[in-house]
Automatic annotation (TrEMBL):
Residue numbers spanned by region Disordered: 51-85, 136-162, 213-253, 275-325
Basic residues bias: start-end ranges: 145-154
Keywords, sorted A to Z: Nucleus, Ribosome biogenesis
GO BP term (any one): endonucleolytic cleavage in ITS1 to separate SSU-rRNA from 5.8S rRNA and LSU-rRNA from tricistronic rRNA transcript (SSU-rRNA, 5.8S rRNA, LSU-rRNA)
Name listed for the protein in its UniProt record: Ribosome biogenesis regulatory protein
Biased amino acid composition, Low complexity: 294-308
One Gene Ontology cellular component: preribosome, large subunit precursor
Family per record: Belongs to the RRS1 family.
InterPro entries reported for this sequence: Ribosom_reg (IPR007023)
Biased composition (Basic and acidic residues): 219-230
Amino acid sequence: MAEYDIDLGNLMAFDRSHSFSSPPAREELVKLALEQGTKLVQAVADALFNLPSTEDPDGPIVALPSPTTKLPREKPLPKPKPPTRWEEFARKKGIQKHKKEKLVFDEQTGTWKRRHGYDRVNDDNDVPIIEAKMTDEPGEDPFAKRQKEKKKRVEKQEKNRLHNLKEAVKAGAPLPSHIQLAATRLPITGSEAAPSKIGKDALQDVAGMAATATASGGKFDKKLPGEKPPKHDKKYRKFLPAAEGSGMGALEKQQTDKVLNKLLSKHSHEILNVEKAVTMYKVKEEKKRRNQKGKSSGNSGKLKAGKQSFKKSSKKGGSSKEKSK
């Protein structure tokens, strides 16, 4: 077996002496690459089995040595983030950061709870009674006051976080990826410029889509002030009534006839008698022609009768005139 350079720390092996005198054809190159790759993998496997191993229920386990080949980084080293205002203040005052325990004893419930997060210690929801102070205003709700103070603290913390982000960007540090996506609506690696400002119509369309993205299509959702109803094509699905009524028989008959007509048309080449159908068509056309002829003859008879009556009345009128003379 030829000698190969093997780096078990990276599970890598390569042959320094392998070279091509002239570039071969593609098919030959693929064949040579597969053969050489098989030899290198076999060399790595042999070197692994020569290492001291320990027994395990899943099989022998070996400890890989330290890598000997320095591989380049795919991405550059991240830039150090600038310190926040609190970190600057702690550095000036010499405040040391101490690691706190995650679990704290809660005296109200008598159990150990988390310091932060869900079901944390000193949760406002676990406080049944709040002791009044001399500085409290009469008639003020202490629970609402605590909620208001908490909301102010959260808003202040969010304001400080955004300020720290601005200072970090000014110092040259990149923004987090999710903020870049929200700001540009483009991939981070994209070279396109940021889109123009979103118009009012686009915002209304997006709001309408979000409002109708429910099981009821936004029918039972609370409407915002000034919100317009969602646009649709005015097409609704029609269903038969669930309860029996005056029109149920006709609707069921219509549905049954529709199904039967589909079945008959599908198997018409098997059950249709062509001669009988032609005869029925001829008889139908003949009846239709006779009816039209009878109507036309009846109209002409009415016209003749009308002319005769008109002549009679004119004669009567003439005789009366002569009498009056």
